[in-house]
Write a structure and sequence with these properties.
With 210 residues, the protein is of the alpha+beta class. 23% of the residues lie in helices and 31% in strands. The chain contains four helices and ten strands. The strands form two sheets. A five-stranded mixed β-barrel has the order 5-6-8-10-9. The N and C termini lie far apart (96 Å).
């Protein structure tokens, strides 16, 4: 009788363990997802998408995109791109490895750019107040560095979550609620951000160009 109870108890524990593994697959899913994201590391040895070929770095105005695009593996802190200098290169999300789709690059250096703007007092992006520029003219596109692998439309925003000069921009552009227009502005401290989540490039508003 004791043997039967022990045998039954062992089978029950085995069944519960198998049932738990079946009902809680999240651990395996997280592991798979993490492995997929971490495959985008900054090393060309581990990631074939990041090539050691520097034909797109540090700058290439004649690339397929027509922008001042560059390869991440072809640049380093201190490199100059037009009037801009790279101050730092870091992962956009600290929990994952540096790579084309997980990087933030901080630049210093001013540029005069022309584009359409959209001002939102309560944006769909977390409800933050922001002023975003887009639809740049050809000359402006040549002044703003972009990753060669970045297929997004060129887009940069000023928000109230950092020292972006948003208050000055609102004053200079006479911005009202959800305002739109086109302007020529001077920017500094451009920051390029690429990640497999909703992110946007940022800069600091300096002034309107007269």
């Amino acid at each position: 009788m004791v043997c039967c109870l022990l045998l039954f108890s062992g089978c029950s524990l085995k069944f519960q363990k198998e049932q738990q593994n079946y009902l809680n697959p999240d651990e395996d899913l997280v592991t798979i997802e993490d492995n997929n994201i971490n495959s985008g590391s900054g090393s060309s040895e581990n990631n074939p998408d990041i090539s050691d070929d520097n034909s797109y770095g540090p700058m290439d105005e004649d690339s397929e995109t027509g922008n001042n695009s560059f390869n991440l593996s072809g640049v380093k802190v201190g490199d100059k791109m037009g009037n801009m200098t790279i101050n730092s290169i870091e992962p956009a999300l600290d929990s994952f490895s540096l790579g084309d789709y997980n990087v933030k690059i901080q630049f210093s250096g001013r540029a005069v750019i022309t584009g359409d703007y959209k001002y939102e007092t309560n944006s769909g992006f977390g409800g933050i107040e922001r002023l975003c520029f887009m639809n740049f003219d050809d000359n402006s596109v040549k002044l703003i560095p972009t990753l060669h692998t970045d297929q997004r439309d060129l887009y940069l925003c000023f928000t109230n979550s950092y020292d972006s000069g948003l208050s000055l921009a609102k004053e200079k552009l006479n911005l009202l609620t959800d305002d739109r227009g086109r302007a020529i502005i001077i920017i500094d401290n451009y920051r390029l951000v690429s990640a497999e989540t909703e992110v946007f490039n940022t800069a600091k508003f300096i002034d309107l160009e007269n």
